[in-house]
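Appendix B. Raw example, untouched.
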Amino acid sequence: MFKNIEKKINADLKNYCTFKIGGRGTVLFPKNQFEVKRIVNDCKKNHLDFFILGNGSNVLFPDDDFKKIIIDLRNLNNIKIAKQRTVIAEAGVRLFAFNRFLEQNGFAGFEWSYGIPATIGGLTYMNGGAFGEEVSNYIKKVKVLKNGKISWINRKKIDFSYRKSNILGIILAVEFKFKNADSKIIEKQQKEFLEIRKKTQPYDKFSAGSVFKRTDDKIPAIMIDKAGLKGVKIGGAEISTKHAGFIVNNGDATSKDVKDLIELTRKKCGNFECEIIILE
């Protein structure tokens, strides 16, 4: 099983997420899309559950050993220009690398994403966005592994909504359509968005981004702030004093600390839906 697949047994999961929290687990590193397919087939044959990992920027691993096989897509990192203003990026491409590619080739429209610590696959699956934009606005089609088959799905057949999609299967690559612009202008706008993030978010702390999803009539960060919960701590976890929508790890937080702080926030402010994925 998993023959000739790069793997790490008993890996410290703190090193595989931006929260820097977690126990131990088995991590596999497929070299390409076909190895992903082989790993998934092996898991199914041996009745093993698995979890697809991008940059780990919106996940909370458990404190105990994580039983599922983790399939880390970091090696699926190819980017290419398919045709005029159309770019294909594999699921494991980091947004920093993707934005550098776009800037160097004069493709504009994605500057709002600069500074988000995510991968193309994770951003697409969660329909990530910021500053009034969403990744789905730029997608033409998505390549997925489903039921043992690899195929492309047209954007029109995918239902994207706020911070979620109905994509079934494993995202392997995404095709985007952009507009052309001067590279210097793109770079300038990227830096401006990054500076906004640094000024308004706890960029220097370990976190998993916004904890709760907003609704049409409720913005969790504002409600948490009004409730006076900024700076409230449980163990090593703290509601950020810079942005109330974030929970940060001050260095020694456990998964339980974070979950207890989430429940405390819900009791005080309402039963918000979590944006981060809490793994057990």
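End of appendix B.
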